[in-house]
Task: inverse folding
């Protein structure tokens, strides 16, 4: 595998395949308190969403699911294997998704993020996203309580060039 310093530059995206789901679900269950189910991922892969896996030297290190509606891109899920946190993989994956969206002519990129996910919030702010609202009780938790989400947007027509 590539060294940590080189790994983000060597990251490649490819479409997610059904045979990738075991690894994707492993990462998902290690990263999130209430992970998506296999059925949700299967529906995404079969449906109209863009489903990507990020690879380094052919090994899946993360994934992303985006929904495209007209000129808007909605990031539904972006996840990096927790063993690889703080190495630039998430930033690299996000930038690749943004560049792809700009090249497709999208004008806005938006997402929701758990209010408790300080690392992700910091990443999104550092990449030019703005907080535009709160979705109360958006995310489930293991305890049965609900957690708020911050809604963030990036104006691709102003904030980004490829």
Result:
């Amino acid at each position: 595998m590539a060294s940590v310093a080189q790994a983000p530059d060597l990251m490649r995206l490819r479409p997610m395949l059904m045979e990738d789901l075991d690894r994707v679900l492993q990462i998902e269950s290690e990263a999130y308190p209430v992970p998506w189910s296999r059925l949700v991922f299967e529906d995404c892969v079969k449906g109209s969403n863009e489903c990507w896996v990020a690879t380094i030297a052919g090994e899946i290190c993360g994934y992303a699911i985006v929904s495209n509606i007209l000129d808007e891109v909605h990031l539904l899920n972006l996840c990096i294997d927790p063993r690889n946190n703080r190495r630039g993989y998430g930033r690299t994956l996000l930038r690749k998704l943004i560049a792809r969206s700009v090249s497709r002519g999208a004008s806005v990129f938006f997402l929701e993020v758990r209010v408790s996910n300080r690392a992700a919030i910091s990443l999104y702010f550092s990449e030019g996203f703005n907080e535009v609202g709160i979705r109360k009780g958006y995310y489930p938790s293991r305890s049965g309580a609900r957690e708020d989400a911050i809604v963030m947007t990036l104006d691709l027509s102003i904030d980004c060039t490829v």
Notes: The radius of gyration is 15 Å. Residues 89-103 form the longest helix (15 residues). Confidence is low (pLDDT under 50) at residues 1-5. Residues 7-159 form a domain with the Aminopeptidase fold (CATH 3.40.630.30).
